[in-house]
Amino acid sequence: MTKTNKSLRPDGRKEDEMRKISMEVGVIPNANGSAKFKIGKTIAIAGVYGPRELHPRRLRLADTGLLRCNYDLMSFSVSDRKRPGPGRRDKELSLVSSNALTSVVFLDKYDMQVIDVFIQIPQADAGTRCAGICAASLALADAGIPMRGMAGSISVGAIGKTVVVDLTKEEEDWAEGATDVPLTYCPKTGTITHLQLDGEITKKDLFKAIDMGVKSAEELVEMQEKVLKEKYDGGALK
Amino acid sequence: MKQYIEKIGKEGLRIDGRGFDDFREVKIETGVSKKAEGSAMISIGNTRVMAGVKMELGEPYSDSPDEGSLMVTFEEAQIASPDWEGGPPSLEAIEIARTVDRGIRESHMVDFKKLCVKKGELVWKVFIDIYPFNYDGNIIDACSIAAIAALLDAKVPKIKGDKVLYGELTKEKLPVIKVPITTTFVKVGDFIMVDPSLKEEVLMDARLSVSTSGKDKINAMQKSGSGGFTPDEVKAMIDKSFKIRPAIEEALKPLQGGKK
């Protein structure tokens, strides 16, 4: 990496600059709601089915509905083919994604039922779980499910000693060591609903990273709301 | 619903207004995953399927020491339909993968001898993984078109010794000799129709997929569903599959460059 202040990052981005983002809702006709979320070279597609009857029955909750995310890194989305089907990582990220979104959805009126969110990653360049959560947030709104607010999800972290937002695979693999802090934030409720950390980072840098993540999540939510308003002309969301 | 399909069938109609031999519009978009060596998202009407090709170096099978290999997987991804419930691949899903596999393998679409790097030691293993995104009938043809489009889109990655340098593709395409086309028919009551819509496929008595190549070659067939066809019906479907094929070939043409 060069020593100039302007462009410490391999792709020339500023430290707090996310990659190019595009979003689209209503991409899967069969689903009740769906969205495609693209950040740099990472792509996530989410489809929502439900609220619907929950199987197996033992998972039914008497006083609230269940939000169930299913994260699937597609076999050809990475350099070395991944064996198709859910592995341990997929299962963990399914749970993490469910937990990131459960509190932003008004689930109490859907007791005994389930809202299924299927997240597929066809192309991965780091930040896939966060892209998946952003796509899921859009898809839930597209499905007309009442929400406390939208959720923005982004990975922050440190490359060497520099705190940056939205790491690429190249940056994650940075030889001096990189720290990855994926987080999800809902501006409406003011809560971080998902936070993980992988690596080694000082407290000072971590605080900085969290602040940067929250700011980026707010920007993501603004973008999500804009895309939804464009589709529904403001009407359905009022 | 089934009675309704049969009732309007007498007037030569189908529930979505098509004729019995009409294939829905096929659309193909390639390069949908840049991490894959080749990829495509295709649609037949509202049925959408994505396929990706990944290539690995490995040891050849002992009965074909100088040939690369092919593997097709398919899963009933729950994102594509409220009726698919996940879990290990269903028997139907396995049948679909194997039907698509045979269509490609038996037609010798890809010249596997050219995918040999070092005889008896190192060959290319080609994986085609197929994921549906929206299921609205005719899943077999959709998977087959997606797999073929991804193969046509694929470029061989660079290698260094026996290591694959993923992300660095050569300009070399896969050695494609010809392009097989699969067309699927269903029988509902007394009526046989091509390219079944969702309800037609779910309510079918019997289904037949025919893979053809060249002027008059049939490379694979798969009959599924619990009902049956008369021999004449089977012959009629085979005939028709050659007549219907150009609609699909047209959509694949832009991917084939100068090749026939």
**Strand tally of chain A, please?**
9
- On the 0 to 100 scale, the average pLDDT of chain B is 93
Number of distinct beta strands of chain B = 12
Distance between the termini of chain B: 43 Å
Element pattern of chain A in H and E: EEEEHEHEEHEEH
pLDDT under 50 segments of chain B (min length 5)? none
Strand portion of chain A: 25-35%
Quickly name the level 1 CATH class of chain B: Alpha Beta
Rg for CA atoms of chain B? 19 Å
- From the alpha-carbon coordinates, what is the Rg of chain A to the nearest angstrom? 18 Å
Distance between the termini of chain A: 48 Å
Largest sheet of chain B: 6 strands, mixed
Order of helices and strands of chain B: HEEEEHEEHEEEEHEEH
Overall number of structural domains of chain A: 1
Percent helix of chain B, as a range, is 25-40%
CATH fold description of chain B: Ribosomal Protein S5, domain 2
What distinguishing features does this structure have?
heterodimer; A: alpha+beta; Ribosomal Protein S5, domain 2; 5-stranded mixed β-sheet; 4 helices; 9 strands; 27% helix; 29% strand; globular; B: 260 residues; alpha+beta; 4-stranded antiparallel β-sheet; 26% helix
